[in-house]
# Entry
Amino acid sequence: MKYFAYGSNMLLERLRERVPSAIIHKKAKLHGYTLTWCKTGKDGSGKCSIVNTSKEQDYVWGVLYEIDSAEKINLDRIEGLGYGYDETIIQLEFNKEIIKAVTYIATNINPCLKPYRWYKDFVIQGARQNKLSKNYIALLKTAECISDPDKKRLQNNRNILNKS
# Structure
């Protein structure tokens, strides 16, 4: 199956911790959406989501993955399908080609939330790994973030970042 990742799952090492069959297909642009950092995470911090603006000039860059359909249940669980994200089918553009894929959009939103620094680093490192534009990466860097008070969680996530 095709899966469009626009947040921390853009980083291959992060996604493979969750879905081992993930293979990067290509980077892709989703028109008519903007990126937010206001999905309420289980840890109380902000996670990425996308918002449909229906404006052609708005867009979100991300990574299109091929995933074994048998592992979709793992992705649904990790993404909190039905408990924080809903699944939707979107149409992406890549080199003027239109591709349909599954992605997740937050249902549990708090615009006051900020991401933990390590989470923001996953998103930025995934963008770099997949050679998204310098302008888009610069935009990602502008997101305000906070420190994670849970040292064990912080270290676990830093270890994954260090592998990439």
Q: What stands out?
A: The domain at 2-163 is CATH 3.10.490.10 (Hypothetical upf0131 protein ytfp). The first strand starts at residue 2 and ends at 5. The chain has one domain: 2-163. The first helix runs from residue 12 to 18.
